[in-house]
From TrEMBL:
PANTHER family: ACETYLTRANSFERASE C18B11.09C-RELATED, SIALIC ACID SYNTHASE-RELATED. This is WcaF family extracellular polysaccharide biosynthesis acetyltransferase. The chain crosses the membrane at residues 26-51. It comes from the Bacteria. Belongs to the transferase hexapeptide repeat family. Keywords: Membrane, Transferase, Transmembrane, Transmembrane helix. Gene3D superfamilies: Hexapeptide repeat proteins.
Length: 186
């Protein structure tokens, strides 16, 4: 007979550090709800400025679209010329997005999960790294601890549970390599 797991009200976070004071978290919550998730501010430069005010490290000429969800901006790094559409960044740990990346509509970058093998159902959080030129397609999911290497593509609706090799296109659940990414210069 298998042991039953009793879910607790307070999950064991094993010393997890949010990385900000309670006041900063509260201010970000209201800023996120009022200005980011509501779509009330459609101007990317204003959204980028607000993210920087909360500790996000953002390069030049970055585009952030309205209706975006970012859990903790102080754990977000965005390289030059990257683009965030209406996506969901659940960054309990650092999300590092290099230059010239695109995160499409409805995509999710998920850095946390729970240990389903543990009776405590404790939190497991690992960073996500997207190297230069990565494209995460619409409704695709990148799981905790995954690195998407240079110019890899995760196609629409796919789920990356393992690292993506450079210059390859991945598809499916779990995502598998379907072909090489050949970038032509005209």
């Amino acid at each position: 007979m298998k042991n039953k797991v009793q879910l607790k009200k307070d999950f064991d976070t094993k010393g997890y550090d949010i990385g900000a004071s309670f006041i900063k978290q509260l201010l970000w919550y209201f800023t996120s709800v009022l200005f980011f998730r509501s779509g009330i501010i459609p101007v990317s430069s204003i959204l980028v400025f607000m993210l920087k005010c909360f500790g996000a490290r953002i390069g030049k000429d970055v585009r952030v679209k309205p209706y975006i969800h970012i859990k903790y901006p102080w754990k977000l790094e965005l390289g030059d010329h990257s683009w965030l559409a209406e996506c969901y960044i659940e960054n309990l740990e650092t999300v590092r997005i290099a230059c010239n990346c695109c995160i499409s509509q409805g995509a999710m970058l998920l850095t946390g999960n729970h240990n389903y093998k543990s009776a405590e159902f404790d939190l497991v959080a690992e960073p996500i790294i997207l190297e230069e030129g990565v494209w995460i397609g619409a409704k695709a999911i990148v799981c905790p601890g995954v690195t998407c290497y240079s110019h890899s593509v995760l196609s629409v609706g796919s789920i990356a549970t393992k690292n993506l090799d450079p210059y390859n296109i991945y598809q499916g659940n779990p995502a598998i390599k379907v072909r090489e990414r050949v970038i032509s210069t005209f």
